[in-house]
UniProtKB/TrEMBL annotation, chain A:
Signal peptide residues on this chain, from the entry's feature table: 1-29
Record-given protein name: Alpha-galactosidase NEW3 domain-containing protein
Membrane-spanning residues: 358-378
Source domain of life: Bacteria
Organism of provenance: Cohnella thailandensis
Pfam families the record matches: NPCBM_assoc
Residue intervals of the Alpha-galactosidase NEW3 domain: 156-231, 264-339
This protein's UniProt keywords: Membrane, Signal, Transmembrane, Transmembrane helix
TrEMBL record, chain B:
Keywords attached to this entry: Membrane, Transmembrane, Transmembrane helix
Keyword Magnesium carried by entry: no
PANTHER family membership: ABC TRANSPORTER PERMEASE, ABC-2 TYPE TRANSPORT SYSTEM PERMEASE PROTEIN
GO CC, any one term: plasma membrane
A single MF term (Gene Ontology): ABC-type transporter activity
The protein's name: ABC transporter permease
Residues annotated as transmembrane: 55-76, 110-130, 160-183, 195-215, 227-247, 326-348
Keyword field contains Ribonucleoprotein: no
Amino acid sequence: MFKTVRNKMAALALALCLGTLAVSASAFAAGGVKLYTPYTSLSAAPGETLSYDVELINDGDSIQTADLSYEPIGTNWTTDLSAGGHPIRQVSVKPGESQNVNLTIQVPYEVNKGDYAFRLNAGTFGALNLKINVTEQGTYKTELTAEQPNMQGNSDSTFTYNLTLSNRTASKQQYALSADAPDGWTAQFAVSGSNVTSVDIDPNGSQAITLTLTPSDKATAQTYDIPIQASNSSTNAKATMQAVITGTYGLNLTTSDQRLSADVTAGGKKNLEMVVQNTGSSELSNVSLTSTAPTDWEVTFEPKTIASIKPGESVPVTATIQSSGKSLSGDYVVGMTAQSSEKSADAAIRVTVKTSVFWGWIGVVIIAAVLAGIYGLFRKYGRR
Amino acid sequence: MSGLLERLRLPLARLRSGDGPAARTSGFADRERGPGGSAFWVMVQKEFGDHIRSWRFIILLAIVTLACIGSIYASITALKDAQEAATGSGTEIDSSFLFLKMFTVSDGSLPNFLTFLSFLAPLIGIAIGFDSINSERNKGTLSRVMSQPVYRDDFLNAKFVAGLLLIAVVVFSLGFLVMGMGLLTIGYPPTPEEFWRVVVALVITTVYVGLWLNLSLLFSVRFKQAATSALSGIAVWIFFLVFYGMIVNLVSNATAPGDAADAAAYVSQQNWMMLLQRLSPAYLFQEAASTLLLPDVRTLNPFVTQDQAYLALNAPLSFGQSLLLVWPQVVAIVAETAVSFAASYVAFMRQEIRSRS
């Protein structure tokens, strides 16, 4: 017993002497009381959580009780001590046995690269010095990146950008997505095929987002910068997409005098001078002309197809409308379409069917014949 | 008729004495040229005046006018109801050809103006014509007129022209009465097209009533008794306006194709029935006048096929096209009127005229 006490005293003195030099994991405490963890210097990335199993060993012959305490590295660092699933402040260890305490340290996102020291005090068990090496410069922000931010196309094409939005903050974020497209353009964000206006991203997570840009019909040949943004009240990320418009497709179908109405006698023919015009800045090829006409009507075009139309040029086309003899008098719609591989144009012609005046004259002749007959009667019977 | 004889003598005397001062006193005679013309117009004027003053005509006119006022009331009520319903539901009332609608719509309490006109206007023609020849013959005035130096056919012609003038006056005054009352009540002025549509419809009405006048003239030439000719005229009138439609319906039911699915047979049968219907002058008139007053009517066929309706716009026809559409009907009415006049003319000219025959 005495020896033990003496040993204890000696150990205590030794501990006091070496106290300031203690860098080793197992701190010697009085009477074979030790504090132990295997990995004392760990590397971690910002946002990572380190977990230590700290063993308190009692080699002595009496129960040892110790208060646990630590000094946090910084305000952002989260530290937890637990045993058996509960937070713990004090540990008792039976003689000849050991107890495990779990220590978790979370590296904050916003942290500088470098070494950080941590010290766990366990009263009579001594103290444990831990070293954490933060391997990279931590950030506290959101990142928005595009695989290919520059795209080229025609004013009729759509531009699809694949974006990646990463949440490098400590908490789950909801981002509102917005694109500052020029007037007349439409921008649409989509996540896994569904159109979205906002996304939720877990901490340290990322989400693939598709942005589809549809240029306006009047987009001229130039480079457009479209700033996009993912933001909420606490964080935001910006990126700029580029859409390079090389030209526009424009096709116009009308009559030569711009009048979209015509008269036709039932069963008769009517020639309409149509004009197919390329109003865009790119060449149009394979322009074919088709029509939707009332039943039994025939619309023929001369020429039927146009191989190509240069920008700004127009090609005259003669449309011949052959109406059906059974048509009612009054108005019908004849739709005409000029269709190129790139663009199409419609023209709706209001065709007024007129009854043939021929039968009207027949009627006049009949009345004249009747009147002549009456005149004949006058001559025969009257004035005698 | 004594008055007529005196007036007949007047232009004739003027003719004999060159340009007598007696003729000057009559402003009417100034306008006349030639012997036949002046005597003819004197007879027309006398006939016209006699009709205007007759009780028969006044009573008839009163009935027709009342019927027309009733139909105007019905149409205006219908228009106002439609207006109220439209404002109630917040939609815009279709105001196209609103003016014409006064002639064709009705709230259901009374037939519309056109129906009334096609039904009652023939009565005016019959009433004017049924005793025009035979009563003169029975009273002996016919032979007295004929003893004057006038052409024999002028007598009949004068009867016809005076009757037609009277009918025109009545029809047009009724038509303009409706127009005026419509302007007053709905306050919606007619477009020129609407106005001409109404005028042409009124002209057709006049010719149609002229047809009935000629028929009754024919009867009055043919039958010695005024009562017989009046009855014959009314019989024809009732036949065409009441029974003819029923008979056509009976024929239609009897000849309906057994196979209801046979569209072609059904269409051709209906076309035949339509042809049968059009033998009736009343039906022709209804078609002609209603098409003119309803610009939306695009065809008079009983069927519009899918082929014809495909891509057709629901737009009204222009006035010319509407007229062209009913031109066959118009021609038929005019021709029937002319033919019935010719018949009465021949019948009259072949008859002997004896005093107190």
